[in-house]
Every structure is written in structure tokens, then in C-alpha cells.
Amino acid sequence: MTPELDDTWEPLRSAAFAAKGAAHAPYSNFRVGASLETTDGRRYVGCNIENASYPVTMCAERVALGSALVDGAAEFQRLFLCADSPDPTPPCGMCRQALAEFAPDLLIVSEGTSGARMEWLLSDLLPAMFRLQPSELDGGAG
User: Fold this and answer.
1) Residue by residue, what is the 3-state secondary structure of 15-63?
2) Distance of alpha carbon 31 from its chain centroid, rounded?
3) pLDDT of 137 over the 90 cut
4) 40-71 pLDDT, tens per residue?
5) 97 within a domain of the structure (yes/no)
6) Which residues are catalytic?
7) Spacing of C-alpha 66 from chain mean position
8) Does residue 100 sit within a domain?
9) CA–CA distance, 10 with 14 (Å, rounded to integer)
């Protein structure tokens, strides 16, 4: 199924494709671009950054999330992904968990090189996400 995108998605889509062009993927040749939108409409982009020491590799989604957090943004509503795959690619498990910390109901659209798109809610992709309760965040007081 390829969801139709209204005009509000085009800036996210364009930004993700531009970010994909900046990806550093000399080992896998699998470039990924991400554009993450805040609830107030700001956008943050990321691309995957591979490293010869594979655990050092950064996914596009977490690069975008990090940029947003550095800028003080922490409430997100939409994510657009594109990757060098004919089929739409969802975020990996690590990225799902990282995004769930801030936006468990994030709307995600991914587009493959074939033009096919898929749409998911993060909560559907990660139904049993790990989350701390507010009382656990303040040391148990309250």
C-alpha cells in the first residue's frame, strides 16, 4: 500500500532525500535519509554515517533526533524516511526505542526507490516499548 501524501509532507520528503544524498555508507552502500518534524513544525534531518568499527555507525533517524535535541526540541509528530531499497524501510529496533522516548505515537512514512511508500505509527512498530514511569525519572519521589 502506498499512502497518498498531502502537500504538508513535501518539505519532509525533500529534506529526507537531500539528507540521504549526504550519507556516508562506504561499507554497505545503503544510504538512508530522515526528516523528523516537531509538533511546532520544525524539521531536523539526518543521514546514516557508517564506520569501519560497525558499532560506531549512526542511523539517520538517531542523527536527526540528536540534532533536534541539541536545538531544544523534544516533541515530535512525523518522520519521513527514504533508503536505497526498492521497498520502504522502517526504522531499526534501536531507532524505534530511541524515538519512543519522545514520541511513542510518531507517524512514520518511508519511501523506497521504487516509489512505494508505507506508513506506520511507532507504537505499532514497537508495541512493547521500554518506558520509565514519571516517578522513576525523579528517583521515586512523588
Assistant:
1) HHHHHHHCCECCCCCCCEEEEEEECCCCEEEEECECCCCHHHCECHHHH
2) 14
3) no
4) 999 999 999 999 999 999 999 999 999 999 99
5) yes
6) 61
7) 11
8) yes
9) 6
- Could you tell me the CA-to-CA distances from 133 to 94, 102, 123, 142 in Å, in that order? 20, 13, 17, 11
Q: For cell 541539541, name the residue.
A: 70
Total number of domains in the chain: 1
Of 24, 104, 28, 99, nearest to 64 (Cα)?
Answer: 99
**What's the CA angle centered on 9, arms 120 and 19, to 5 degrees?**
90
Q: Residue 66's domain is classified under what CATH number?
A: 3.40.140.10
User: What are the backbone dihedrals phi and psi of residue 7, each rounded to the nearest 5 degrees, phi first?
Assistant: -60, -25
Helices 60-70, 10-21: crossing angle, 10 deg rounding:
110
> Containing domain of residue 39, as a range?
7-126
Are the C-beta atoms of 88 and 112 separated by less than 8 Å? yes
Give the pLDDT confidence of 24-47 residue by residue, as tens digits: 999 999 999 999 999 999 999 999
CB 4 within 8 A of CB 13: no
